């Protein structure tokens, strides 16, 4: 009885998922090879470190974004949170707070922003797109109000040196991706809340009737995304040594693009951690390579757009074939 | 709605025109028409001829094959075998568009129009009047108004569709089909959401259409409507066409017995258990959709709730489950009054719900079978905050083999399974949860007989372990055979209660339909 299996294809699906991950990885390697051959400067330690630094911050944003997208939502505010929290941490450091306190407070503010998103969605019944769009513009505004439009510079050397330093030959910023990525992987694939993210994204009503705390799950997803973004805000402030609310313009779109290139479905319930990471570094490589090849930076945007269409199209194709 | 929107024109010369028309040749003929889903017959080979200009009623229980028949006739699903002849010519009817081009239209139970557009815009949707490529709004409103006036009811053509009542929207949907040159119009339980007056208006319209030569297929399980409208009636049971009668040659009892009379196969494994203590009791519980319901469930007991769709049964049990707030009344669990505010409260007490709609409420279709089976018990499967993958797989595999769920593997998506196997997941996920009370809302809809029998056997196992069951079904034989206590619901009220098999099917059906004779007394 249980042998009638001809019309279902989970094993192929599994294989496809692995294959898709490998395809992305192969694409990344191919890009690196091509750039290595066509430019002299790509495979220099300096450039690789630079590439890793560039990709790292978007990668962390993409991880947070992926949690939200898996629940069937979207978080447009992450870029604004990065800019805002860079101002917050700069302000705190300028007012004599110790580094550890400034970091904790900044992350705490990230938690508050995420909880507010959850509140707007669960309690006020606003669509995720709307509530996060609203905080996108508000946070930039508040950040500018705090500094009166100016930039706060950070003259705390240990704080700013962190992002420029390496550990074991690898930039600290990339280590931060590891620091976020491993717990994120364990959370998503080895904890029940990870399962709940998927189940809520697939069918919130069925999840609720199965005893899943749907509202709590939504709060959790947006809080994680906002915390990831405020963490990136810290990293950015460290890297550029200033706090400025207009920084990280459009990063939310890069984060969403990375996540989607990495196989996350905007319809929810499909996503991973490694996918968005690969997606982020593919985008970073394209930008880096385009710079090295002296491609007009306007073209970089066009290339990114085309790439999103191509990769997501093939991903859809793969799903339909299943 | 105010009165001036509606005009009553219940004038109609009844059956003189009909008998003349009924003598005509068949307009649509089915020869051996048949539909299978995954090897299950949704419609067994059927031969049926619709005569031009007749009103032909089709009756049958839920799952008898009525909707399959409509979908075949309107080109929504392809047939497995057989022929459809339109005026003697075979037609393919593979797409809805083709059906419409042949003049075959359907008016559904739920209005499928655009509520945010005007009445006129809806009537001309897809066939807008244009001049130089621009819409002629005023012209369309005028034309639509003419159509509405001609059809004999005064409804304003310029208002938004959503400003009308459901019944009026149903009339608009019918008018729309009529203006498209429909020669063959199928009504699928059109009065399900209508008031009496609205239904009367719809009937008047149906008769007008008939007089103008349209052939009507009228699907309903309301006996009084069938006898009021139809010239002939066909009866479906378990996907089989069991007979066609002239309305004058039959009566309500015959139709009901044709609908439900079955050699009760050995699928109902009713094992009597001795009842233990009361698990759950409701006292005068009211909420949205039901009023003043008092029931109790004991260990080892199946309490059946029978009634038509929309009678308030599902609302009642989902309120017990904490999905909706109660408005008054009390719930007792294990003898103590409890306050169930949300689903998790109910689940914590030990209540499990297998909801009515598998797809919308029961399953995360895109996700693996194993996740669906484990969803309520991930807490138990977690150790030190992390899920034990081995436990997760082991539990899923044991459910799959115990319940004989046909799936390629535990990681196949729930969507890839057949209806019966999906239902086993919906039920199976509660089995290791330690629930005391199981609520099954229409557990065997769209499930083949073999799987039904397995589900019923599962009930026995649950009862044996001291659980109680609330079983909701619109399928009378099921609740009739299985329920130790059977409560009949009609329009949000509990109209009767019967111990196991103490009354006939006909009595129960009469109580649920609320037709003529018995307007309810409650014995218990």
UniProtKB/TrEMBL annotation, chain A:
<feature type="transmembrane region" description="Helical">
    <location>
        <begin position="259"/>
        <end position="286"/>
    </location>
</feature>
<dbReference type="GO" id="GO:0005886">
    <property type="term" value="C:plasma membrane"/>
</dbReference>
<keyword id="KW-1003">Cell membrane</keyword>
<feature type="transmembrane region" description="Helical">
    <location>
        <begin position="128"/>
        <end position="146"/>
    </location>
</feature>
<protein>
    <submittedName>
        <fullName>Ribose transport system permease protein</fullName>
    </submittedName>
</protein>
<keyword id="KW-0813">Transport</keyword>
<dbReference type="GO" id="GO:0022857">
    <property type="term" value="F:transmembrane transporter activity"/>
</dbReference>
<dbReference type="InterPro" id="IPR001851">
    <property type="entry name" value="ABC_transp_permease"/>
</dbReference>
<keyword id="KW-0812">Transmembrane</keyword>
<feature type="transmembrane region" description="Helical">
    <location>
        <begin position="167"/>
        <end position="188"/>
    </location>
</feature>
<keyword id="KW-0472">Membrane</keyword>
<keyword id="KW-1133">Transmembrane helix</keyword>
<dbReference type="Pfam" id="PF02653">
    <property type="entry name" value="BPD_transp_2"/>
</dbReference>
<feature type="transmembrane region" description="Helical">
    <location>
        <begin position="218"/>
        <end position="238"/>
    </location>
</feature>
<feature type="transmembrane region" description="Helical">
    <location>
        <begin position="298"/>
        <end position="314"/>
    </location>
</feature>
<feature type="transmembrane region" description="Helical">
    <location>
        <begin position="51"/>
        <end position="70"/>
    </location>
</feature>
<keyword id="KW-0997">Cell inner membrane</keyword>
<feature type="transmembrane region" description="Helical">
    <location>
        <begin position="20"/>
        <end position="39"/>
    </location>
</feature>
TrEMBL record, chain B:
<dbReference type="InterPro" id="IPR017871">
    <property type="entry name" value="ABC_transporter-like_CS"/>
</dbReference>
<keyword id="KW-0067">ATP-binding</keyword>
<keyword id="KW-1278">Translocase</keyword>
<keyword id="KW-0677">Repeat</keyword>
<dbReference type="InterPro" id="IPR027417">
    <property type="entry name" value="P-loop_NTPase"/>
</dbReference>
<keyword id="KW-0472">Membrane</keyword>
<dbReference type="InterPro" id="IPR003439">
    <property type="entry name" value="ABC_transporter-like_ATP-bd"/>
</dbReference>
<dbReference type="GO" id="GO:0016887">
    <property type="term" value="F:ATP hydrolysis activity"/>
</dbReference>
<keyword id="KW-0813">Transport</keyword>
<keyword id="KW-0762">Sugar transport</keyword>
<keyword id="KW-1003">Cell membrane</keyword>
<comment type="similarity">
    <text>Belongs to the ABC transporter superfamily.</text>
</comment>
<feature type="domain" description="ABC transporter">
    <location>
        <begin position="28"/>
        <end position="263"/>
    </location>
</feature>
<dbReference type="GO" id="GO:0005886">
    <property type="term" value="C:plasma membrane"/>
</dbReference>
<protein>
    <submittedName>
        <fullName>Ribose transport system ATP-binding protein</fullName>
    </submittedName>
</protein>
<dbReference type="InterPro" id="IPR003593">
    <property type="entry name" value="AAA+_ATPase"/>
</dbReference>
<keyword id="KW-0547">Nucleotide-binding</keyword>
<dbReference type="Pfam" id="PF00005">
    <property type="entry name" value="ABC_tran"/>
</dbReference>
<dbReference type="GO" id="GO:0005524">
    <property type="term" value="F:ATP binding"/>
</dbReference>
<feature type="domain" description="ABC transporter">
    <location>
        <begin position="274"/>
        <end position="516"/>
    </location>
</feature>
<dbReference type="InterPro" id="IPR050107">
    <property type="entry name" value="ABC_carbohydrate_import_ATPase"/>
</dbReference>
């Amino acid at each position: 009885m249980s042998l009638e299996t001809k019309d279902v294809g989970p094993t192929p699906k599994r294989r496809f998922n692995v294959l898709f991950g490998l395809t992305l990885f192969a694409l990344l390697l191919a890009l690196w090879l091509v750039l290595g051959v066509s430019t002299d400067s790509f495979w220099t330690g300096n450039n690789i470190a630079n590439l890793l630094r560039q990709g790292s911050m978007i990668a962390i944003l993409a991880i947070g974004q992926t949690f939200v997208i898996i629940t069937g939502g979207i978080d447009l505010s992450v870029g604004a949170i990065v800019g805002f929290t860079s101002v917050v941490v700069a302000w705190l450091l300028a007012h004599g707070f110790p580094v550890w306190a400034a970091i904790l407070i900044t992350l705490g503010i990230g938690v508050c922003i995420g909880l507010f998103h959850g509140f707007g969605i669960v309690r006020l019944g606003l669509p995720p797109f709307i509530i996060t769009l609203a905080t996108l513009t508000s946070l930039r505004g508040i950040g500018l109000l705090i500094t009166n439009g100016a930039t706060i510079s950070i003259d705390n050397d240990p704080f700013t040196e962190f992002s420029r330093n390496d550990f074991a030959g690898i930039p600290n910023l990339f280590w931060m991706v590891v620091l976020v990525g491993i717990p994120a992987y364990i959370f998503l694939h080895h904890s029940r809340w990870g399962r709940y993210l998927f189940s809520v994204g697939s069918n919130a009503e069925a999840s609720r009737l199965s005893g899943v705390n749907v509202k709590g799950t939504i709060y959790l997803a947006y809080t994680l995304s906002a915390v990831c973004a405020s963490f990136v805000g810290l990293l950015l402030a460290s890297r550029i040594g200033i706090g400025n609310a207009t920084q990280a313009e459009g990063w939310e779109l890069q984060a969403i693009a990375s996540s989607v290139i990495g196989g996350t479905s905007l319809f929810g319930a499909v996503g991973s951690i490694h996918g968005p990471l690969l997606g982020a570094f593919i985008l970073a490589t394209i930008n880096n390579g385009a710079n090295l090849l002296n491609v007009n930076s306007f073209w970089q945007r066009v290339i990114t757009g085309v790439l999103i269409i191509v990769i997501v199209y093939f991903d859809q194709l793969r799903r339909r074939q299943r | 709605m105010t009165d001036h929107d509606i005009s009553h024109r219940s004038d109609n010369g009844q059956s003189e025109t009909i008998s003349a028309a009924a003598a005509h040749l068949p307009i649509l003929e089915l020869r051996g028409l048949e539909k299978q889903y995954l090897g299950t017959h949704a419609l067994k080979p059927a031969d049926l001829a619709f005569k031009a200009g007749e009103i032909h009623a089709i009756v049958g229980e839920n799952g008898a094959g009525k909707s399959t028949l409509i979908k075949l006739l309107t080109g929504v699903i392809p047939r497995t075998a057989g022929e459809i002849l339109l005026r003697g010519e075979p037609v393919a009817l593979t797409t809805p568009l083709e059906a419409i081009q042949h003049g075959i239209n359907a008016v559904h139970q739920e209005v499928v129009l655009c509520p945010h557009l005007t009445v006129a815009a809806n009537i001309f949707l897809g066939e807008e009047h244009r001049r130089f490529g621009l819409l002629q709004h005023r012209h369309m409103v005028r034309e639509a108004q003419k159509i509405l006036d001609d059809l004999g009811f005064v409804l304003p053509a310029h208002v938004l569709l959503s400003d009308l009542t459901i019944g009026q929207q149903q009339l608009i949907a019918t008018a729309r089909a009529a203006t498209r040159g429909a020669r063959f119009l199928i009504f699928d339980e059109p009065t399900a959401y209508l008031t009496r007056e609205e239904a009367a208006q719809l009937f008047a319209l149906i008769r007008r259409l008939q007089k103008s030569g349209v052939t009507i297929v009228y699907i309903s399980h309301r006996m009084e409507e069938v006898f009021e409208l139809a010239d002939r009636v066909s009866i479906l049971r378990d996907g089989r066409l069991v007979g066609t009668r002239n309305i004058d040659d039959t009566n309500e009892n015959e139709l009901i017995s044709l609908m439900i009379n079955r050699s009760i196969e050995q699928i109902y494994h009713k094992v009597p258990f001795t009842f233990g203590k009361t698990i759950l009791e409701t006292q005068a519980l009211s909420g949205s959709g039901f009023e003043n319901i008092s029931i109790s469930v004991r260990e080892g007991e199946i309490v059946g709730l029978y009634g038509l769709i929309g009678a308030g049964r599902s609302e009642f049990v989902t309120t017990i489950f904490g999905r909706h707030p109660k408005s008054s009344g009390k719930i007792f669990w294990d003898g103590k009054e409890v306050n169930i505010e949300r689903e998790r409260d109910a689940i914590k007490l030990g209540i499990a719900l297998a909801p009515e709609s598998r797809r919308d409420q029961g399953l995360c279709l895109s996700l693996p079978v194993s996740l669906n089976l484990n969803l309520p018990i991930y807490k138990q499967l977690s150790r030190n905050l992390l899920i034990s993958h081995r436990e997760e797989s082991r539990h899923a595999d044991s459910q799959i083999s115990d319940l004989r769920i046909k799936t390629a593997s535990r990681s196949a998506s729930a969507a890839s399974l057949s209806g019966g196997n999906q239902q086993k997941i919906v039920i199976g996920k509660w089995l290791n949860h330690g629930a005391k009370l199981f609520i099954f809302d229409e557990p065997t809809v769209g499930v083949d007989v073999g799987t039904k029998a397995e589900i019923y056997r599962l009930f026995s196992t649950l009862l044996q372990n001291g659980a109680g069951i609330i079983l909701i079904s619109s399928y009378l034989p099921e609740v009739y055979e299985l329920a130790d206590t059977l409560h009949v619901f009609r329009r949000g009220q509990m109209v009767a209660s019967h111990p196991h098999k103490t009354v006939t099917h006909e009595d129960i059906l009469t109580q649920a339909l609320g037709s003529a004779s018995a307007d309810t007394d409650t014995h218990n």
